[in-house]
Amino acid sequence: MLYLYVMMQRLAENAKNEKGAALAEYGLLVALIAVVCIGAITLLGGNIAAAFNNIAGAIN
Fold first, then answer.
1. What is the pLDDT of residue 17?
2. CA-to-CA distance for 40 and 52, rounded, in angstroms?
3. Is there a contact between 37 and 44 (Cβ–Cβ < 8 Å)?
4. Can you give the three-state secondary structure of the chain, one letter per residue?
5. In angstroms, how far is the first alpha carbon of the chain from the final one?
6. Angle 39-44-50 (CA atoms, 0-180°, nearest 5)?
7. What is the Cα–Cα distance from 58 to 13, expressed in whole angstroms?
């Protein structure tokens, strides 16, 4: 979380000039992708663990 805070602070500093505007947009996209990935892992983590456990049980 600290990494995201530092990243957002840097993006805010870079958003003050026009060259940093594109960087800020890319940073926001990266943050959005990270949030989506974390959400997907959180929601699907239990199902994926169960699937691997089933596979491991079938192998044994």
1. 60
2. 17
3. no
4. CHHHHHHHHHHHHHCCCCHHHHHHHHHHHHHHHHHHHHHHHHHHHHHHHHHHHHHHHHHC
5. 39
6. 155
7. 54
Supply the pLDDT for residue 58. 93
- Per residue of the chain (60 residues), what is the pLDDT tens digit? 677 777 777 777 766 666 666 788 888 999 999 999 999 989 988 888 899 999 999 997
CA 1/CA 52 separation, integer angstroms: 29
Query: From CA 30, how far away is CA 20, in angstroms rounded?
Result: 15
User: Maximum CA pair distance of the chain?
Assistant: 60
